[in-house]
Amino acid sequence: QVHLVESGGGLVQAGGSLRLSCAASGVVLSIDTMGWYRQAPGNQRELVADITTAGSTNYADSVKGRFTISRNNIKNIVYLQMSSLKPEDTAVYYCSAHGLQIGGRFFDNWGQGTQVTVSS
């Protein structure tokens, strides 16, 4: 199995910064796209940003210019640097990854989520 474990969430004041990390472990052979999603109470889960193995990135309009996604392909870790945080960024942030397990089986997994709370 492939496991995704997030860290780095917490409480921050508006205008502050946080860095989220997500490490993939287990029977990972290769990972294609890694990404971050978020879900606020009463809302659907939405894409925040994702990044391919080659480093191509995609951001939600609401976070462009404030958030930066990056990854370490050797360690299978994806990061989300969040700056100029706003109260509307408050949500549970989930890491996602899909790729191949050792043995050739495809995986498409989620982390358990980490809470980010931005106070005004």
Structure description:
- By secondary structure, the protein is mostly beta strands.
- The protein has no helices and eleven strands.
- Strands 2, 4, 5, 6, 9, 10 and 11 form a seven-stranded mixed β-sheet that branches.
- A hairpin with a 5-residue loop joins strand 5 (46-51) and strand 6.
- The chain is elongated, with a radius of gyration of 14 Å.
Features:
mainly beta; four-stranded antiparallel beta sheet
pLDDT under 50 segments (min length 5)? none
Distance between the termini: 40 Å
How many helices does DSSP assign?
0
The number of strands is 11
- Which quaternary structure do these chains form? single chain
Q: What structural category do the secondary elements indicate?
A: mainly beta
Radius of gyration using CA atoms only: 14 Å
Helix content: under 10%
Overall mean pLDDT stands at 96
What amount of the residues lies in strands? over 45%
Which sequence of SSEs, written as H and E, runs from N to C?
Answer: EEEEEEEEEEE
Shape: elongated
What kind of sheet is the major sheet? Answer: 7 strands, mixed
